[in-house]
């Protein structure tokens, strides 16, 4: 079984020597604490360093607090260790607190208090030496990775944006992404060729649009048949993974995007935040890693 270090941990403190990183006061034995874990790597004498906060201090003083805001219970299980060790009341309160949205961002000058967080847009792929991943993680580049994990008796394939905790160069999963169960993962595997064909259609459409602009043709001057042909072309190509989960292939600012997402039933299948948008290069990397991911799914399912 691969060794997994989750980025956050919640527990009841079992000693009275630790101090809260937020308020700097001592943490009493038995107190409920939340902490972030810097994974230093398997080659280090001490693999992990945890920064502890009083439970209330974490939500107000920790720079990573918004990583646990707006998070559903399933995703919490993926990124927080120790939830199952809480009392029913504390578990309910934690899930309820985490489900609330992040505080509205206020414009400010100077350096952000969250400057220690490295986001996907700020760093390149692992091949350039900017970050590392654990042995059970498949890097798709630009801090988007795939993790295979087991919760209770179920195996999941999680495709998610990762981030770097301060003091660690090993990337860890964030709340932004989606975890597919085994059936949904197998369905994604079965429609890979169709999705790949859709990316080529979208890329060809973008090339055609560029050529039209290069020739200086005014859309108003197009013939009736040409206008009808353009209007009939769908803005996205959809594939179904399950009742609420879909893959959509579309064009965004001259880039082809493969979006794997859950849709809300509150309105007529409105896009939800639970999902991940892959660039064409990341999608290609996912296809290349599919045999290795599937092998790990089978091994963890035994």
TrEMBL record:
<keyword id="KW-0863">Zinc-finger</keyword>
<dbReference type="GO" id="GO:0060261">
    <property type="term" value="P:positive regulation of transcription initiation by RNA polymerase II"/>
</dbReference>
<keyword id="KW-0238">DNA-binding</keyword>
<feature type="region of interest" description="Disordered">
    <location>
        <begin position="95"/>
        <end position="114"/>
    </location>
</feature>
<dbReference type="InterPro" id="IPR036957">
    <property type="entry name" value="Znf_PARP_sf"/>
</dbReference>
<keyword id="KW-0805">Transcription regulation</keyword>
<dbReference type="GO" id="GO:0003713">
    <property type="term" value="F:transcription coactivator activity"/>
</dbReference>
<keyword id="KW-0539">Nucleus</keyword>
<dbReference type="Pfam" id="PF02229">
    <property type="entry name" value="PC4"/>
</dbReference>
<dbReference type="InterPro" id="IPR001510">
    <property type="entry name" value="Znf_PARP"/>
</dbReference>
<dbReference type="InterPro" id="IPR003173">
    <property type="entry name" value="PC4_C"/>
</dbReference>
<feature type="domain" description="PARP-type">
    <location>
        <begin position="8"/>
        <end position="91"/>
    </location>
</feature>
<keyword id="KW-0862">Zinc</keyword>
<protein>
    <submittedName>
        <fullName>Uncharacterized protein LOC111100446</fullName>
    </submittedName>
</protein>
<comment type="similarity">
    <text>Belongs to the transcriptional coactivator PC4 family.</text>
</comment>
<keyword id="KW-0804">Transcription</keyword>
<feature type="region of interest" description="Disordered">
    <location>
        <begin position="205"/>
        <end position="233"/>
    </location>
</feature>
<dbReference type="GO" id="GO:0003677">
    <property type="term" value="F:DNA binding"/>
</dbReference>
<dbReference type="InterPro" id="IPR009044">
    <property type="entry name" value="ssDNA-bd_transcriptional_reg"/>
</dbReference>
<keyword id="KW-0479">Metal-binding</keyword>
<feature type="compositionally biased region" description="Basic and acidic residues">
    <location>
        <begin position="205"/>
        <end position="218"/>
    </location>
</feature>
<dbReference type="InterPro" id="IPR045125">
    <property type="entry name" value="Sub1/Tcp4-like"/>
</dbReference>
<dbReference type="GO" id="GO:0005634">
    <property type="term" value="C:nucleus"/>
</dbReference>
<dbReference type="GO" id="GO:0008270">
    <property type="term" value="F:zinc ion binding"/>
</dbReference>
């Amino acid at each position: 079984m691969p060794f997994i270090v989750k980025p956050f941990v919640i527990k009841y403190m079992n000693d009275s020597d630790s101090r809260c990183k937020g308020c700097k006061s001592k943490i009493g034995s038995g107190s409920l604490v939340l902490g972030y874990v810097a994974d230093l790597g398997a080659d280090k004498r001490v693999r992990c360093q945890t920064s502890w906060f009083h439970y209330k201090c974490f939500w107000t003083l920790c720079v990573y607090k918004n990583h646990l805001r707006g998070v559903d219970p399933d995703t919490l299980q993926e990124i927080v260790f120790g939830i199952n060790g809480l009392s029913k009341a504390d578990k309910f309160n934690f899930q309820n607190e985490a489900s609330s949205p992040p505080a509205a961002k206020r414009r400010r000058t100077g350096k952000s208090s969250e400057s220690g967080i490295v986001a996907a847009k700020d760093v390149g792929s692992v091949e350039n030496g900017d970050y590392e991943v654990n042995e059970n993680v498949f890097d798709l580049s630009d801090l988007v990775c795939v993790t295979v994990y087991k919760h209770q008796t179920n195996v999941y394939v999680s495709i998610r944006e990762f981030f770097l905790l301060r003091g660690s160069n090993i990337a860890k999963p964030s709340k932004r992404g989606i975890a597919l169960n085994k059936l949904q993962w197998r369905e994604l595997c079965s429609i890979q060729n169709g999705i790949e064909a859709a990316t080529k259609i979208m890329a060809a459409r973008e090339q055609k649009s560029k050529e039209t602009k290069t020739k200086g043709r005014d859309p108003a001057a197009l013939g009736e048949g040409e206008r009808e042909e353009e209007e009939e072309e769908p803005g996205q190509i959809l594939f179904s993974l399950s009742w609420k989960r879909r893959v959509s292939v579309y064009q965004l600012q001259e880039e082809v995007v493969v979006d794997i997402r859950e849709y809300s039933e509150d309105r007529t299948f409105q896009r939800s935040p639970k999902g991940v948008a892959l660039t064409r290069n990341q999608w290609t990397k996912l296809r290349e890693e599919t045999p290795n991911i599937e092998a790990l799914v089978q091994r963890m399912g035994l």
